[in-house]
């Protein structure tokens, strides 16, 4: 009985030699599997990092909070500004009272002499009273506007300094933002993430 030697399947290449195709194919498949495994593991790592990034960012985020009105009133020049505004308001109110008293006196005189006035005089006095009343109303509206404008102009430098102080404190403490808690704008603030910066801002205004 003749025993024949079993040779692996060989292929004749273009150069006249033989290539072992099955072995080469196994190596190719194995390399492809290894590459696929590496890519899959890398994608999972990236996905995990992407999911954890928002949590890490939220944990490191810090902010400040304060009462804008309270800190504004703590400025040394706030009281002086308010005194000047009140003085101006008193002057406008005094002038409006004088005009109102003048109108009331003339109106009472008109009523007292109404029965004795000739028609032409009565119409003239009525026109005078109407004109005076309209002038008083116009002055009152203009006084209110001028008073509001004067208050805004007087407070503008102080508010500008306050805004600069807020920005400086925020930068020094590396805060993402600073909240104004006036009018119950922020009912709840996490004390572990937020910091009350009222004292720090007030110190910058001194």
Structural class: mainly alpha
What is the H/E order? Answer: EEHEHHHEEH
Oligomeric state of the chains present here: single chain
Radius of gyration: 44 Å
Strand order of the largest sheet: 4-3-5
In percent, how much strand structure appears in the residues? 5-15%
Shape: rod-shaped
Q: Termini, distance in Å?
A: 114 Å
Helix content: 55-70%
Q: How would you characterize the largest beta sheet?
A: 3 strands, parallel
Counting DSSP H or I runs of 4 or more residues, the number of helices is: 5
- The beta-strand count equals 5
- Average residue pLDDT: 82
Pick out the low-confidence regions.
Answer: 1-20
For the structure shown, list the relevant keywords.
206 residues; mainly alpha; three-stranded parallel β-sheet; two-stranded antiparallel ribbon; 5 helices; 5 strands; disordered N terminus
Description of the molecule:
It is built from 5 helices and 5 strands. The chain has 206 residues and is mainly alpha-helical. The strands form 2 sheets. It has a 3-stranded parallel sheet with strand order 4-3-5. A two-stranded antiparallel sheet has the order 1-2. A hairpin with a 5-residue loop joins strand 1 and strand 2. Helix 3 (78-113) packs antiparallel against helix 4 (119-172) and helix 4 (119-172) packs across helix 5 (198-205). The radius of gyration is 44 Å and the shape is rod-shaped. The model is unreliable at 1-20 (pLDDT under 50).
């Amino acid at each position: 009985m003749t025993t024949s030697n079993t040779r692996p399947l060989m292929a004749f290449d273009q150069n006249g030699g033989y290539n072992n195709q099955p072995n080469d194919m196994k190596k190719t498949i194995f390399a492809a599997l290894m590459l696929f495994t590496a890519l899959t593991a890398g994608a999972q790592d990236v996905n995990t990092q992407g999911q954890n990034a928002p949590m890490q960012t939220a944990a490191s985020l810090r902010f400040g909070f304060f009462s804008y009105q309270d800190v504004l009133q703590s400025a040394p020049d706030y009281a002086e500004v308010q005194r000047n505004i009140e003085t101006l308001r008193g002057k406008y109110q005094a002038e409006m009272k004088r005009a109102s008293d003048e109108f009331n006196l003339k109106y009472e005189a008109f009523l007292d002499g109404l029965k004795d006035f000739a028609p032409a005089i009565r119409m003239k006095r009525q026109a005078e009273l109407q004109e005076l009343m309209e002038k008083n109303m116009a002055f009152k509206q203009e006084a209110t506007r001028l008073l509001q404008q004067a208050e805004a102009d007087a407070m503008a430098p102080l508010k500008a300094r306050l805004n600069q102080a807020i920005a400086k404190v925020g930068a020094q403490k590396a805060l993402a933002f600073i909240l104004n808690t006036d009018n119950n704008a922020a009912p709840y603030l996490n004390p572990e993430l937020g910091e009350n910066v009222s004292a720090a801002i007030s110190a910058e205004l001194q």
